[in-house]
Write a structure and sequence with these properties.
The complex is a heterotrimer.
Chain A (H helix, E strand, L loop, with lengths): L21 H15 L5 H9 L3 H6 L2 H15 L7 H6 L2
Helix pairs in contact in A: 1-4, 2-4
Chain B lengths: L24 H15 L5 H12 L3 H13 L1 H9 L1 H7 L10 E5 L4 E6 L8 H4 L4 H4 L1 H9 L1 H7 L9 E6 L5 E5 L11 H5 L4 H5 L13
Parallel strand pairs in B: 1-4, 2-3
Helix pairs in contact in B: 3-4, 4-5, 8-9
Chain C lengths: L7 E4 L18 E11 L2 H4 L9 E9 H4 L10 E7 L3 E3 L2
Antiparallel strand pairs in C: 1-2, 1-5, 2-3, 3-4
Classes of the chains: A mainly alpha, B mainly alpha, C mainly beta.
Chain lengths: 91, 216, 93
């Protein structure tokens, strides 16, 4: 799903840009900090993104994929307990 | 930055379910994640703040300085081509965490274009965060297979005799394109030259132009 | 460091379950080593909580676009470069 080189597509490239929202800057920075601290590395981030179910990968925004990856990897490592983040959000 | 006239609802367009205040559901989740991780002592809040400050201070101006210096100083250019990371440090720039940065020189014979087909690897320390289109599925799919068509969409036409060389950043090397110095810039100072170097030209989808003379 | 600049190589055509950084479109393709980069942790293990050691040599490999795509519509001289790990390369003639 992530391995896209040469996938057939006629889609034009949408060149609209958006400035990163605060939460996106935060997401990026959390990953950077986790990397600096040796908790999670960039290969794990990529692997986490690649583990998304294809439909979710397609519809998620760029930093939503990062969020999915971080939750997946940190839960796997036992840094987060399963469901802990949901509980914190009251969902 | 042109808008397309026609609607394209491709599956790879970003979808953001909106909640209060127009933020997606993910926003609250990310903030809660930070809180949890800080509470648990996994990361320090101050480290996160510093990282945020670093990210928002990144811009293409740093990359442009490397390019402009290489245009006026041919020995610096050789050092830049040999080790872009060290060259950035030489100019007191922050080359970022990637251990290796490689500069790719455009010439009369070769035009480079960078993509990361597998994800979105990008020299953000020197260029700032990548534009959405660079991370998009259409760019990642088409840049390697039909680079000339992609360049044409960006308004760049190259003769058949020029080699279009697409570089797929498949590992942890970060690539920066050194575009060609436009003719008609012989009298410009280094700072003025840097102002001509756009982010897109350092990705390889644009070509810097000399400033148009102002009519007297 | 098994390969040298100028050497002809082939990207392995094998399947790999799990994270790896050799794109499908390059598997089985013939190219030429252009540069020997530094050594890096192996992403295939580093992505799964292991230390990624021993580090593997990484090479910048050049491919002729006409060799990569069946119907490449650009110029005959166009090329594609990619970074490929040593354990994904084989000698070629």
């Amino acid at each position: 799903m992530h391995d896209r080189g040469g996938w057939p597509t006629e889609a034009p490239i949408d060149r609209r840009e958006h400035e990163l929202a605060d939460w996106e800057v935060l997401m990026d920075s959390l990953v950077g900090t986790l990397g600096q601290s040796g908790v999670m590395n960039v290969d794990e981030l990529r692997r986490g993104i690649e583990s998304m179910p294809p439909a979710a990968y397609e519809t998620a925004s760029y930093y939503e994929r990062w969020l999915y990856a971080v939750e997946t990897i940190l839960t796997e490592k036992g840094v987060l307990a399963s469901g802990e983040l949901d509980a914190r959000l009251g969902t | 930055m042109s808008l397309h006239d026609h609607d394209h609802h491709e599956a790879d367009h970003d979808h953001e379910p909106l909640t209060n205040g127009g933020e997606p559901v993910a926003a609250a989740r990310v903030r809660a994640l930070e809180e949890l991780l800080v509470e648990k002592g996994v990361i320090g809040r101050e480290d996160v703040r510093q990282r945020i400050d670093w990210l928002i201070s990144r811009s293409p101006a740093d990359g442009a300085r490397l390019v402009a210096r290489s245009w006026v100083d041919s020995e610096f250019k050789q050092r830049l081509l040999a080790d872009a990371r060290a060259a950035a440090v030489e100019l007191d720039l922050n080359p970022g965490p990637s251990p290796v940065v490689v500069a790719l020189e455009n010439t009369e014979a070769v035009h480079h274009m960078v993509v990361c087909t597998l994800c979105s690897c990008y020299p953000k320390a020197l260029l700032g965060p990548p534009p959405d289109w660079y991370k998009s599925v259409p760019y990642r799919s088409r840049a390697v297979a039909d680079p000339r068509a992609v360049l044409a969409e960006f308004g760049v036409q190259l003769e058949d005799g020029v080699e279009v060389r697409v570089v797929d950043s498949t590992a942890d090397i970060r690539y920066l394109v050194i575009p060609r110095r436009p003719s008609g810039t012989e009298t410009l100072q280094e700072e003025e030259l840097a102002a001509l170097v756009t982010r897109d030209s350092m990705i390889g989808v644009a070509i810097p132009v000399a400033p148009t003379p102002v009519a007297a | 460091m098994r390969y040298r600049p100028g050497q002809k190589v082939r990207v392995a055509a094998r399947r790999h379950e799990g994270h790896h950084r050799t794109p499908a479109y390059l598997k089985g393709k013939h190219g030429t080593v252009k540069r020997v980069h530094a050594r890096f942790k192996n992403p295939e293990t580093h992505a799964y909580g292991l230390d990624g050691l021993p580090e593997q040599s990484l090479y910048l490999v050049s491919f002729e676009q006409q060799d990569v795509w069946r119907e490449y519509s650009g110029s005959a001289g166009d090329r594609l470069y990619a970074d490929v790990f040593e354990h994904w390369l084989e000698e070629a003639e």
